[in-house]
Amino acid sequence: MRDNSAAYREIFLNDIPMMDMRAPVEFAKGAFPCAVNLPLMTDIERQKVGTCYKQKGQQAAIELGHQLVSGRIKAERVEAWAAFARSNPDGYLYCFRGGLRSQIVQQWLKEVGIDYPRVIGGYKAMRSFLIESLDQAVTECDFVVLGGMTGTGKTEVLARLDNSIDLEGHANHRGSSFGKRATGQPAQIDFENRLAIDLLKRRARGQQQFVLEDESRLIGACSLPLPLHLRMQQYPLVWLEDSFASRVERILKDYVIDLAAEFLTLHGEEQGFGRFSERLLQSLDNIRKRLGGERHLRLRKLMQEALEEQRHNASVDRHRSWIDALLREYYDPMYVYQRESKAARVEFSGTAEAVEAYLQQRRSRCEA
Known about the structure:
By secondary structure, the protein is an alpha/beta fold. 62% of the residues lie in helices and 10% in strands. The protein is built from 17 helices and ten strands.
């Protein structure tokens, strides 16, 4: 791995499996999609070794580490690493900096007859490589942003374009105040890594022109990388239009029918519906201040009545009342203002079919 950047590139382009030797707490803060956490030490063991290092120095810490990971514990961990290595003979192992922990694991594997490579520079170097590759893409590639009122189907249009980057998909969130899904969001670092790898793979296939959905800095709890967010305020904008009635139906499907189904699949019918109801009401409560007290209470009452009817007879018809009011009174005025503030950047507007055709033509011109 003399040319480390080239090696990192090959790892991510080919989804090469990796063993992450860091402690679980480190792995949870951020990792790579094809990495499995098989730590040298548990969180508690790592903490003890760290305290020893501060108080008594490196040698004492190393000796303590060998005492903590010995005997049956060591044998079980070596067997787990060996099983991974046998299943993934082309893989790698790494720790935070590619130092002591990965070297120890590499040595212990050699002792059972397995010569397994480690990533030079470890997690830190690979993470730096992905950050740099994302920054390069933002600087070097051509981007266009797809905007539109809430419920116009921007995500559906993006799904039909093979040069779109699904920011909301990477964040596992639909982007709005009601966009939280039944399953959780990735850690911030995981979100950034997924996005960087997605762009890296697409550029390797020759793509240099991408379509992004118009997003604020935050997609739920995930924050767009600052260089990308800043450039998104300057990229050309294509505006998607749809009828009010179609938008209501699309929101009903996404935020009521489909979201309820997610919760029921995860938690069962009774508990799932209860959690779905709590999530929907909490999403409304989260924008209470922006709605104002009276409007919030009125919409909450409509939502509660709709949920009660849905619970009793599975009908979702009454949900249209709060969706209609929320669009007319809250989202639409906000998006009209945003549309006006971005008017100079809008290079095309139209229906889904027209926008999709325009974006495909635009890509062809850029690649010609």
